[in-house]
Amino acid sequence: MLAITGTPGVGKTTVAKILEKRGYRVGSVNEIAKKYGCIEEEEGELVVDIKKLRESFSEDLDFIEGHLSHYLADRCVVLRCNPLTLKERLKSKGWDEEKILENLEAELIDQILIEALDVCSEVHEIDTTRMTPEELADLIEKIYRGELKLGYGRIDWISVIGDEIEEIIRKV
């Protein structure tokens, strides 16, 4: 099983739907967590109890998608997106300013990548900023089949956007 992970807005769900249409068995962390009763309320927000989910998870899938999916698989693809583009995507989804800032920060500091490196034996990183969902699905299929190894560590948003970081934070 290959996890498709990354901060919200990078394209996980979109590419998962394409892979499912291509005949793969695909699951969503949130849906599976609901199925196994692993969702709890903390400070007014619903959160996945990942430890409980790992203990009860028994799905036979090709792919699992979600920003916590790397905790359920040994292999994962971390989808990344330029924070300038990500900000616009999250705004267009109607996200509030605080949540947008929280997710932009996570993307800037490689939070999901670092988590994935702690728990997965194989990690690939893909910049989705200028890719079509179909191109992304093609790449992920090749990784799944063992035909492509991308590795990680090539994406550094701070050096790419540098001076624009303040602008991103100010104009959410």
UniProtKB/TrEMBL annotation:
Annotated keywords: ATP-binding, Kinase, Nucleotide-binding, Ribosome biogenesis, rRNA processing, Transferase
Catalysed transformations (reactions): AMP + ATP = 2 ADP; ATP + H2O = ADP + phosphate + H(+)
GO biological process annotation, one example: ribosomal small subunit biogenesis
Enzyme class: transferase
InterPro entries found in the cross-reference section: Adenyl_kinase_AK6, P-loop_NTPase
Region (NMP): 28-48
Domain of life: Archaea
GO molecular function terms listed in the Swiss-Prot or TrEMBL record: AMP kinase activity; ATP binding; ATP hydrolysis activity
Gene3D superfamilies: P-loop containing nucleotide triphosphate hydrolases (3.40.50.300)
Residues spanning the membrane: none
ATP-binding listed as a keyword: yes
EC number in record: 2.7.4.3
Region ranges (LID): 92-102
Residues binding ATP: G9, G11, K12, T13, T14
Function: Broad-specificity nucleoside monophosphate (NMP) kinase that catalyzes the reversible transfer of the terminal phosphate group between nucleoside triphosphates and monophosphates. Has also ATPase activity. Involved in the late maturation steps of the 30S ribosomal particles, specifically 16S rRNA maturation. While NMP activity is not required for ribosome maturation, ATPase activity is. Associates transiently with small ribosomal subunit protein uS11. ATP hydrolysis breaks the interaction with uS11.
Subunit comment: Interacts with uS11. Not a structural component of 40S pre-ribosomes, but transiently interacts with them by binding to uS11.
Similarity annotation: Belongs to the adenylate kinase family. AK6 subfamily.
HAMAP family in the cross-refs: Adenylate_kinase_AK6
Protein name per Swiss-Prot or TrEMBL: Putative adenylate kinase
